[in-house]
Amino acid sequence: MHVQALKSLMSQKYPTYNVDENEWDDKFNKVSIPLATVFTNKVEEDSSKQVSRSIKYALNLGFSVPVPDDTESILTILADTTSENVNLIRSIPKEYFSDIQKAVEQSILQGQDRHALYDRLQEIYNTTKNRATLIAKDQTTKITSLISRQRQLDLGITEAIWIHSSAVKTPRPSHVAADGKLYNLEKGCLIEGQYIYPGQLINCHCYQKPVIAYV
Question: How much is the pTM?
Fold first, then answer.
């Protein structure tokens, strides 16, 4: 049986075969904006505390340094990252249901038993779960880095030191080599021919240590 013919038959015999996907799309669309907003604001709050602590330790102070109110640059970062997270959240069900449909169709066309289909569905579930986890971790690191950098720039800090993190099992050799490297906070650190910031690339857990000129 041809794939398109199978889809047509499934749609006629089981109306929810296509409806459920749209229903879940609507549900994800409704929660994506408030969920992404709460997530971004929480990361911003934690990032601000992190900047305050980093300056406290750099100056060897006995108290935390308050960070300035949200500037236009910070608000722009929050708006951009919230929008990006909304799109990422909305992409999850589309890929998930598409993979499930393909698995069911292939199982029927190839005459597989229910155990093979179960294994494939379990694999899809695990892949989707792992992808969602990676998105959450990566976005947390990325947003923290962006906000921390901008907070430091707003405070007049112009330089930082790249600090490599050993949080990943297979670190990028170029990031390991950059550990302890001084760079311009506005421009970024030159690594492999491009200027980047800690946490900018996917699965990068490196961070920056601000340099206070008069210390």
Answer: 0.63
Q: Which of 214, 208, 215, 213 is nearest to 161 (CA)?
A: 208
Q: pLDDT by residue (tens digit) across 151-185?
A: 888 888 899 999 998 777 888 999 999 999 999 99
Residue 168's domain comprises 158-215
Say if residue 18 is in the same domain as residue 123.
yes
Residue 87 to residues 33, 78, 134, 148, Cα–Cα distance (Å): 9, 14, 15, 23
CA torsion 83→86→91→92, rounded to 10°? 150
CA distance 100 to 106: 10
Q: What's the structural domain count of the chain?
A: 2
Tokens (6 digits) for 206: 């490196």
Last residue of a domain, one of 140, 156, 172: 156
